[in-house]
């Protein structure tokens, strides 16, 4: 089963990355050639973004054609130039003139900090990264782990990465019709958080909440937990979060500049304002999975997209004989969708951590705590 953004009709995803010889970075593009409604919410204190102001509900442009997520800190924003170039070649964009090629592609973007993690500070994504990621975008299930914008991602000294998740939204009985398309919400997250996704005491992700087996995990053995506390101790101490173990005394190997960025998308027909709300609530999912989150050194940014292929309950003021938030109302549906958006973004962040593999100076969770993973 495709449990990623590309399960939604009209969305493609592509990546481009470089690894080795001083490189450890990449770019991911969420490509919507027919256009999608979008919103954004930025919670981190150190964001790096492009074209996010036009997503405010009161502004003119109603649809975007791609979202560019990239490594490279502010340098990586140049990747969006390549996305625009490829879109323009395909005639994809906001129609400005009469001729088919007279378009301006709308490509909001966000970046993570991964400079120098491959060994050479000057190696970062360029416009060519964005061009190649767009050119190779497809409907295939999106790969998780060390790919695209997640290539150089690190979280609290451990390798981060790119993760995916998908959820079916259960509709209220009054709106449940088996003859119509189901509503889905999906997420793609690039986890490069300053905080930790792992409880240093149990050695398990915070999100597990005593249900490790459902995630294919179990409490790691004592030696693995000790190693994990050593890796986390220096970073967590800087946030005033202690661990039961002693810090190793080793120098910190992860930059203090971070960020978790991503996209949550649905096939439900949403307005710009509703997409904005979905992006806002998706941050609740991030706060569940990463402790702490939304710090001054994070640039946490979430985009929300609506492909609009599934009509839902009418907006308030257009409902005949229905209360504002009662059964079958749009508010009731949106509440279900918002809960699903937070859940799916949290799940995508966890997927990034579990799928990551060690790279460069950064071990993965699997490297440090192999006994946490249940093998078939």
From TrEMBL:
GO molecular-function terms, A-Z: aminopeptidase activity
InterPro entries membership: ArgJ-like_dom_sf (IPR016117), Peptidase_S58_DmpA (IPR005321)
CDD domains: nylC_like (cd02252)
Listed SUPFAM superfamilies: DmpA/ArgJ-like
Similarity comment: family membership: Belongs to the peptidase S58 family.
Official protein name in the record: Unannotated protein
């Amino acid at each position: 089963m495709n449990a990623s953004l590309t399960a939604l009709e009209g969305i493609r995803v592509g990546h481009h990355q470089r690894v080795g010889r001083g490189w450890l970075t990449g770019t991911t593009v969420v490509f919507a050639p027919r256009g999608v409604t979008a919103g954004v919410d930025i919670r981190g204190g150190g964001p790096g973004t492009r074209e996010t102001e036009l997503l405010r509900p009161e502004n003119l442009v109603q649809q975007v054609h791609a979202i560019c997520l990239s490594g490279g800190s502010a340098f990586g924003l140049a990747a969006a130039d390549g996305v625009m170039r490829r879109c323009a070649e395909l005639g994809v964009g906001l129609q400005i003139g009469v001729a088919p090629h007279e378009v301006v592609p709308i490509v909001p973007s966000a970046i993570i900090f991964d400079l120098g993690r491959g060994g050479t500070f000057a190696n970062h994504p360029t416009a060519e990264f964005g061009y190649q990621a767009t050119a190779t975008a497809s409907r295939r299930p999106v790969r998780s782990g060390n790919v695209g914008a997640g290539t150089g991602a690190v979280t609290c000294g451990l390798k981060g990465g790119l993760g995916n998740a998908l959820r079916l939204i259960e509709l209220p009985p009054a709106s449940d019709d088996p003859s119509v398309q189901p509503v889905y919400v999906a997420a793609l997250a690039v986890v490069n958080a300053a905080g930790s996704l792992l409880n240093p005491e149990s050695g398990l992700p915070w999100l597990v909440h005593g249900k490790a087996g459902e995630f294919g995990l179990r409490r790691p053995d004592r030696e693995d937990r000790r190693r994990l506390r050593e890796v986390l101790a220096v970073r967590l101490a800087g946030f005033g979060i202690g661990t039961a173990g002693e810090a190793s005394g080793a120098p910190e190997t992860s930059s203090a500049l971070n960020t978790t960025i991503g996209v949550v998308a649905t096939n439900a027909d949403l307005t710009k304002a509703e997409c904005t709300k979905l992006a806002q609530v998706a941050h609740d999912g991030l706060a569940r999975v990463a402790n702490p989150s939304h710090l001054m050194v994070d640039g946490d940014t979430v985009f929300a997209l609506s492909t609009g292929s599934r009509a839902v309950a009418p907006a308030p003021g257009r409902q005949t004989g229905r209360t504002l938030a009662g059964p079958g109302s749009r508010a009731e549906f949106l509440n279900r969708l918002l809960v699903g958006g937070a859940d799916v973004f949290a799940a995508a962040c966890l997927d990034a951590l579990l799928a990551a593999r060690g790279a460069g100076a950064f071990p993965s969770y699997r490297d440090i705590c192999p006994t946490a993973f249940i093998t078939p």
